[in-house]
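Q: My labmate handed me this sequence with no annotations at all. I'd like to see what the chain might look like in three dimensions before we decide whether it's worth expressing. Could you predict it?
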Amino acid sequence: MGITSATMKRACKMEFRATYRIILACCALPILASCDFSSTFCDLEDLKYQCTRPHESDKQMSRDIEVEQKEILTQEGRKTVITTMPDLVGGIARVKESPDGSIFLVGGQESMIVRKKPTADDWNATYLTSSPNFIRDIAFLNNKNAFAVGDKGMIYSTQDGGENWKLYNPGFISETSSDLEDLKFRAAYTVAFSDNDHGVVAGEQRVLTTIDGGKTWQRSFDSMSGIAVQRIILNKDRTGWATTSSGLLYTPDSGRSWVVQDSPLREPTPSLALEHVEPNLLCYTISYSVLCSDEPGPFRKGKVAWKNETGSGAGITSLKMHDSKRGWFTTDSGRIYMTEDGGRTWHIWMDVLANLQEGLPKNTALQIELWDMDAGAERIFAAGAMTKFEDREDGRHIHTMPILLSWERPTAEQDAAKHDLPAQ
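A: Here is what I predict for the chain of 424 residues:
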């Protein structure tokens, strides 16, 4: 993937939506040498406004934000809350519910972390850098301790439940730290912990592991040339899986060693979604395909009743199971599909774009991209970006903002009523 200076100049004339999609698309490529735009953003006149924070220092900055909410119904009549954040620019790469029930949204620009506490109605945005870097993932060890990772391989940590964050690895990006050269990498896409001590950070051509809660890190799995690790899941018994630009990997020891897993489908497209449900259901995706296995059985390809998917080309972007039978996946065109048979078949569950466009003025159009899902204690979440196009007398105005969807997890009584079974 070659990017010329002329191409960059054309890209800089686009609105933030295009920039956001380019960066997210880059993290899905096997080799990302041409995808680190952050060093050139601030040198280009058209993007200078995106490279400066509305404050003078380079310290963490937080502010309350306004949100707009709307309720819609799915095709099965389930109430879904849609939250948009017009105060912010950009979209969401990951959504996670913390152990205490707080909602965290991470993305960009400026290494943005959005939080909503479970006992409050207000939303807060924290910016960790003044450059257009993205936070790609976040993982919680407990109510207080968490790690967030992102562009340039940066690792941030909090010890107070997300009130304050600090750069945990400044030495990784220091030119004078030759002893840490082996740990440096250009982008971290995923972080996971099996317990308070054992964790993994991975991304472009690097996998780092810790056995002391992140105090020190070691490089593992040296055969990573040209490989980008997209997502990692670790279980309490320290087993886990990773999706990469070259397929599926398995670890028996919290990421210290990895084994390539057989797959019935080989495509030059990275896997963006991964899910494991106890006791033995494992699912992951490649482009527009869903593959599930009832371990230790073989993977089977699910049958999807597609509905005119016309996204950016990433296909299925995230997958989350409620249990071993029912689950959902999202696409980059803003649709959500559902399975009720453990991933064997999938059908459209919600067309977010169609719901939100209903009743809009003729001069206004929307585009929805969903990039991640999470299963909280009581609700399922899906997050991404909503771009609003509005034609006015002075021209077309384009604004990309975060979007979050949430709906209640089905109860045992609801499942029993749906399938005409006695509740357990």
